[in-house]
Each structure stands twice: as C-alpha cells, then as structure tokens.
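Pinned message: reference record for Amino acid ABC transporter permease
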Amino acid sequence: MPDLFDIKLVFTQIPELLKYLPVTLELTVAAGVIGLLLGVLIAIVRVKDIPVLKQIVVVYVSMLRGTPIIVQLYISYFGIPILLKYINYWNGTNFDVNGVPPVVFAILALGLNQSAFMSEIIRSSIQAVDEGQVEAAESLGMTANQVRLRVLLPQAGVIALPGLMNSLIGLIKGTSLAFVCAVVEMTAAGQIMAGASYRYFEMYCSLAIIYWIITAVLEWLARLLEKKLSIPQEAPELQLAVERTVTND
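Predicted structure (tokens):
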C-alpha cells in the first residue's frame, strides 16, 4: 500500500510549528491592542455624532470591512514603503525604509482591519445600554466622566465581550495570512517545512490542530469571563449602586 498519509508526522511536527507560536501571538496581541484602541475612538466619534469626523470614520470602516484582509496586507507591505520614500523626498530625510521589519506592516494592516470590526461591536454595545440608567446616574449628581467610567463603559464592556472575543479569534486565524508580508509565523513556517518534505497534507493537519486548540482555549476563557462579569437579573437597582459610588466619592 502506498504511503499516502503519515498520521505520526501530523503530531511529531507540531513541536516544530510551536516554535513559531510566539510570532503568531505577537501579531495577535499587537494588532488586537491597536484595533481595540482605534475601535473605541471610532465608536465614540460615531455615537457622539461628531461632524466631519463621523463621515470620515464611516468611509474608513466601510472600506476596511468591504475589502479582503489579504489585499489590505499587500497594500500595507508595498504601500507604506512608497509613502515613506515620498516623505524622505519631501522632507529631505534619509530614513532607512528597507530597515523596517516586515512584521510592522503586518501588524498595522491587521490592527487597522480589526479597528473597523471592533468599532461596530463597541458602538452597538454602547447604544445597547439602557438610557434610563445613564439618566438615573446623572440625576444623582454624577459628572459626565463618572457616568461614562462607572455606568456606561462597564456595562457596554460586558455586552461587547462576546463580540470582541470572536473578533480576537478571527484575528488569530487572520495572522496566518501575514506570510504575504514576509513574516514567518506558524503557517508560513509550515509551508516552508512542507516544501522540504512534500508532506503538505500532514502539515496543514498539524496547523489545523494547533489553531483549533488555541481557539478552543479562547472560547473557554470567553465563557468564563462572561459568567464572571455578567450582571445577574436579581442584582440591586442601579440607583443603589450609583448612590454608593457618589457617597464613596
């Protein structure tokens, strides 16, 4: 019988692939932080309906959500160096464009892409908070910042958590496309190793197992956080909580 599939190889090459897991996690964390910070800012602009800025971010979100991430990675990888060269030309500087690590281009593309999706999750979560609770807090003398920090954002955060965790899981899987920016993460390393052995099927099975385990762990953590942060139905009225907050202040 021909040796078409080696099940042992699927598991024996997993340790080699895990050597590149830190690169995948670096991409995920850095892009996730960028996406979350920008997503919050974009959501605030849209919720507050700030003129001009709102129109700009609407186009920004539409463009990033409406184009493939692999295209955005290519634009980042080839476009940012061109932009930097123009900046060198206009300002008479001599910045080493070729010295920029490829991982920077991948992080920027992934982070900007995530900001578009996260902003929609955060915006809808803020709008889902009952306005009556905000009004109750304001009627008790809380300032606008206190209302946002102690009433609005904590509840919006709980509502947004499932969506943000799903976005993070999607980001981890999206890092597998970073190879187009010459970043050697797990998937790129697997392709290189498979090119030497011609065992592509086994390699992709190994990668599938790793990504599946990572996402399963994240889903478990998400459920744990949701259970820990969820507000029980029998919780005291918001007014009592706000009164305690005002008293403590």
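Pinned by admin. Summary line: The chain has eleven helices and no strands.
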